[in-house]
Sequence to fold (432 residues):
Amino acid sequence: MGAGQSTAERGAARGEAAADSAQRLREVEEDNRLLEQEVVQHRMVAELARGQSEMLIQSLNFLAAESNLDKFLGHVLKVTVQQLQGVGGTLWFPDATTSSIRLHLEYLDSRIISAAQSHHPAVLHPLPAGGRPVSTFPMTHAETYVLSGEVGGMPEENRAYINSLGVHTLLTVPMMLGQETVGWICVRSSKSDAKELESKLSIAEALAGQATLAVQMARLGEQARQAAVLEERNRIARDIHDTLAQGFTGVVVNLEAATRTLKKDNIDSALEHIEHARQLAQAGLAEARLSVRALRPEALQQADLTNALGALLRRVEASGTLHAHFSMQGDKIGLSSEVESELLRIAQEGMTNILKHAKAQHVEVKLLFGADTVTLSIADDGVGFDPRGHHDGFGLLGMRERAERIGARLLVNSALAQGTRVETVIPRSALG
Fold:
């Protein structure tokens, strides 16, 4: 009996072991099946992510190649609608001047149209800023709105227009720049269930971020353009001021000299001064015309800086009121046209200031080519002034601005009754 029972027990034990093995096998098979499903899901997610990444990269490449802002924004709107499998979409911008939200672009019937081409009621009646979402989109995070119920604040004419297109769901995504909302992308869907749109919210936000980047780049480009225009206007103003001031100061000086000599019945000398005045007036007019055309100074058209400075000093001395001398020291090096132009303009302005204010008898101009610097020095023996005072009128201010444009420093050394020395010092490193 014991032996029989033992055999039975052993048989039962083997049966239980077999059952356990079979159960474990089924569990392992189920685990493997679930693992395979998970692997497939991960693969699908990875492929989707890769596809989305490639799409975003393509969009960025489009941004890099496309200079027209509206074309890129239209591209982003189209891609966003396609990625979310929508039936259309819109892009909106805030209008601070009218405190409203205006339709900018619409994606309809597989094409991008401007607000001027759209039949959207908001074209004629912009949405008021500060209202409820969808009608005005004043949110800081993207949200989905289903049009089956009451949609906060949407004008009836807007609702009728959207319903006529077979739209049941709207997804609005803000274009955020820090805390500023620069626009909104709205995707239309014919599906009543908003969950599918919500599941693709991240890609919509990424595309909205690209649209924001494009808007900011356009802003910065416009700011840079305006700054460049302003700088060019200032440059032309400086050139014209320097040219006319220097030229007409010489004209006035020569005409005053002619008046004095006429009083002494020295007609020949008076005629000589009048001829100098005529030549200076002609040269000033020619220089002004060239400045407006943003060309190099006339004196540099056919000569280098040293020759132009020498000619300038000869004209000053020809006025008969000032002894002028020019010299060059050091091993001469080639200077760019911009550096030469600015240095000549600085010298012209310096001569104008001396003739108008210094009451000097002598002026010495030096162009020094040192080991580490290139220096333009203008020194006179006039009445001088206190540099601690405010003497930064258009003359000195213009000279400082010109010096800064070429990476130079303007050094002013003066004292009452001890003359003035103005030095424009350019480090060799700034000359390239």
Notes: The two ends are 111 Å apart (CA to CA).
